[in-house]
Amino acid sequence: MSKEIAIIxxxxxxxxxxxxxxxxxxxxxxxxxxxxxxxxxMSTFVLxxxxxxxxxxxGVVIGGASLAYQHGWAGNSYPLALGxxxxxxxxxxxxxxxxxxxxxxxxxxCYYSKNRIVLEFSNxxxxxxxxxxxxxxxxxGTAVLSVVTGMDRELCLIxxxxxxxxxxxxxxVKTVIYTDFIQGAILLAGFxxxxxxxxxxxGGLGGLTQNIPPERLSFLGMKSxxxxxxxxxxxxxxxSNITDPGRRLAMYTARSEKGAKIAMVTAGGMVMAFxxxxxxxxxxxxxxxxxxxxxxxxxxxLVLNVLPAxxxxxxxVAFASVIFSSATTNVATVGxxxxxxxxxxxxxxxxxxxxxxxxRIALVFSFVFALSxxxxxxxxxxxxxxxxxxxxxxxxxxxxxxxxxxxATWQGALAALITTPxxxxxxMFLPIQSGFWGNAAIMSAIAGTIAHFAVxxxxxxxxxxxxxxVQELHQARKAIEEV
Length: 483
What we know:
Layout: H1 3-26, H2 32-37, H3 44-55, H4 58-71, H5 74-93, H6 104-111, H7 116-149, H8 153-168, H9 173-202, H10 204-208, H11 222-225, H12 227-242, H13 245-252, H14 257-288, H15 298-305, H16 309-345, H17 355-374, H18 380-391, H19 393-404, H20 410-429, H21 440-457, H22 466-481
Helix pairs in contact: 1-8, 1-9, 1-16, 3-9, 3-14, 3-16, 4-5, 4-14, 5-12, 5-14, 6-7, 6-22, 7-8, 7-15, 7-16, 7-17, 7-18, 8-16, 8-17, 9-14, 9-16, 12-19, 13-14, 16-17, 18-20, 18-21, 19-20, 19-21, 20-21
C-alpha cells in the first residue's frame, strides 16, 4: 500500500468516527444548556483530556516544531508557556465555576459593575479573537493536507474548514469535549511514538544534538531566537490562556469547582511535559534535513519523505486530532458568545427564540469568515505573535486585577483596555525591532497594568457586589437556558 493511500484511509476513518460522535450527541441535545454548556456535568477525567488536547493546537505542533527546527530549544517555549498559562488559569479562576457563568464576559461583568463599555469591548474582542484562532487552526490543517496530498492550498483550506464544521456544529459543546478527549489519546499515541523514534534513531539526546548549532541548545534557545523575543512569545501565550474564553468554557462545563481546578492544573502540567516532545521532534527534522525552505512545513515534510506508510498515516491522523480539537473548541466558544452577547447587541438586548438553531446558523457564517481570513494569512507563528498582544494583554490585566483587587474600577479597566493595544500597535509600527523596548507583549502588559492602577485609584470605588451581579446575570440568562 502506498503512503498516500494509507494516509487517506487513516483520515477518512478519523473523519467518519468524529462525525459519528458528533451525530450521537446531536440526537441527545434536549435544551440549549446541553448544546452550549454540556449540561454543566462533565467529569474531571474527560475534561482533563479535552483541555490537554485543545491546548496542543496548531501553534504547538506546527509553530512550535517550526521554532525548534530554526532555534532548537526555543520550540519548547511555546508549549511550556501554554501549559503554564493553563495551570495558572485553573488555580486563579476555577472558583468561578460555582457561579454558573456561560461566558468569560459574564465574569468580567461581575468584576466591573456590568459597565457597558467594558463589557461590549470584551464581548467583541473575545468573539473576534476566537474567529481568528479558528482561522489559525484551519490553516494548520491546510498546511498538513497540502503537503501530504499535493492538493492546492485553497482546496485544502476548504476541506479543513468543512471537517471542523461537521465535527463541531451538530452536537455542540458536549461533542467538542468528548471528541477532544478521543483526539487527545490519538495525539499522545502518535507523537509519543514519533518522539521515541527521533531519539532512538539519533542515538539518544547526545546524538540528536551533536550537529545542532550551540546557540540553539541554550536555555529555551534564547541565544538563537533572542531572549526578549522568546520571553515576549511566552508572556503572550500565558496571557492568552488567562483570557482564553475556551478555557473558561471548559471550566464552566465541569461538575464542580474542584473538578474544574484539577482538570486545568493536570492538563497544564501535561502540556508543559509535551514541550519536550515538540523540541526533540523539531531538532530531529533539522538533523536529517537542515535545508527546508519553509520551516512551518517541517513536520509535514517528515511525514511525506521519511516515515513508512503505516506510521505516516498514524502521525497524520495525530496531526488532524491536534488541529481539529483546538478548532472545535474555538467553534464552541464562538457559538456561546454569539448567542449570549453578539446577537443581543444587535437586537436591543433580546435573545433568540431558538438558541441552538441560531447558533448553528451563526457558526456557518463564522466558517465563511475564517476561510476568508485564511486565504490572506501565510505564517502561523508570526500571525499569533502579532495578533495576541493587541487583543489579549488588556483583557488579561483586567481579569487578574479584577479578581484580586477590590479597589479596581471600570474606569481603570477601560484605561487598561485602551492602553495595551495602543502600546502594542505603536511598537509594531515604530522602528524598534528587538530587545526589551521592542517587545509588544511585555511593554503593553506593563503599560496596561500601570494605567489600570492609576485610573482606578483616582476614580470612585464600585458599589455593586459581585454576588448581586451574578444573580442579575442568572435571571437574564434564563431566556436562553430555559427555552
